[in-house]
Amino acid sequence: MTLKLKKPMIIFVLCFLFMICSVVCSLASSSADHDAWAPLKDRLVNDGFNREYIDTVFSAGTMKYDSGMMTRKMKVLLHRRFEPPAKKIAREKEYDDRYVGPILLAGAYSYLRENFEILTRIDKKYGVSPSVLVALLLVETKLGHTLGNSPAFSNLANMAASPDPMKFFDELGHTDLAPEDMVWLKKRTKQKADWAYKELSALLKFSSTNSLNPSEIPGSPYGAFGICQFMPTTAISYAVDGDMDGRVDLFSKDDALESMANFLKRHGWKSSLSKKKKLKVIYRYNHSMVYARTIYEVAVQLDSIRSTFGPE
Q1: Are 210 and 249 in contact (CB under 8 A)?
Q2: Do residues 154 and 63 lie in contact, with contact meaning Cβ atoms separated by under 8 Å?
Q3: Which contacts qualify for 166-170: CB closer than 8 Å, 24 or more apart?
Q4: Where does the signal peptide begin and end (predicted)?
Q5: Among 73, 219, 270, 301, which residue carries the largest CB count within 10 Å?
Q6: 55-84 exposure pattern, b = at least 16 Cβ within 10 A, e = fewer
Q7: Where exactly are the structural domains of the chain?
Q8: Alpha carbon of 249 to those of 111, 136, 227, 244, 297: distances in Å?
Q9: Mean per-residue pLDDT for 257-261?
Q10: SS3 271
């Protein structure tokens, strides 16, 4: 005897089976995430963080383990390791001319005018001119408009939890590495994981001090956050409460701008410095001379525009 199901019953059965499969897959994924995070969570607890707090942060829906973050980083480093010297020299251009084009410069100048009162107040306190701060903000986040598409905490956690390149070796595109290159790869991956762990710990501390949910802070692929794009360790050392509301919020204009000025001043910035010495200070913000020269050039252009059209 053949059992015949009516169409509504067939649809119900299929939906039920789909729901069961979804639940099973979800549980399997959750278990895999738990196993991947376990060593990292234990390390954080051993370093003094509260177990309940750590479990809560890692239970956020955004906390899905993915070695892809570390894979992409190591791909870049491997590419640079094997890059011919001529290409390395070509990559080190004078400055990034995208930021001195008319559209971005016009936006930067408009921002300077709109926030001139705040910027001049900060200049008097720290000795960092409005043009330099606006140049930094332009290059870092397009004046606060590009803040990253995923949580900084998740990005750092995925790197910190991926110290072994053999877990994603097939995805690197370098299956024929020489023994000395394999040694280098394992060492550099471990170094990057340890660096990410240090930044992850700092982000937890910064978040706790300033009443933030670390799993909800948007950031760059490698963990920088706020309109000033500070790394967590930088935030702990140099971020300040610019608007005096009792907490540091690097997504707040007052806090972020003053924190940037504080960073530059504490690294030796003075308006009287030579160009060479100014570039060295800017380099500390982002370790790239192309970046430093770009900030310097944008600031020069803004000063030129301001000398003609104000404000004074």
Answers
A1: yes
A2: yes
A3: 167/67, 168/67, 168/68, 168/70, 168/71
A4: none
A5: 219
A6: eebbeeeebebbbebbbbbbeeebeeeeee
A7: 34-309
A8: 20, 18, 10, 11, 29
A9: 98
A10: coil
**SS3 category, 150:** strand
Q: Please report which confidence band the pLDDT of residue 90 belongs to, taking 50, 70 and 90 as the band edges.
A: low
pLDDT one-digit tens code per residue, 182-237: 999 999 999 999 999 999 999 999 999 999 999 999 999 999 999 999 999 999 99
Asked whether the beta carbons of 197 and 231 are under 8 A apart, the reply is: no
Task: Give the model confidence (pLDDT) of 148-168 as tens digits.
Answer: 888 999 999 999 999 999 999
CB atoms within 10 A of CB 230: 26
177: DSSP letter: -
DSSP 79-148: HHHHS-HHHHHHHS-S--GGGGSHHHHHHHHHHHHHTHHHHHHHHHHH---HHHHHHHHHHHHTTTT---
- Contact between 137 and 143 under an 8 Å Cβ cutoff? The reply is yes
* DSSP-assigned beta bridge partners for residue 150: 219
Alpha carbon 308 to its chain centroid, in Å, reads 36
- Assign 6 a pLDDT band (cuts: 50, 70, 90): low
**What residues does 230 pair with on adjacent strands?**
225
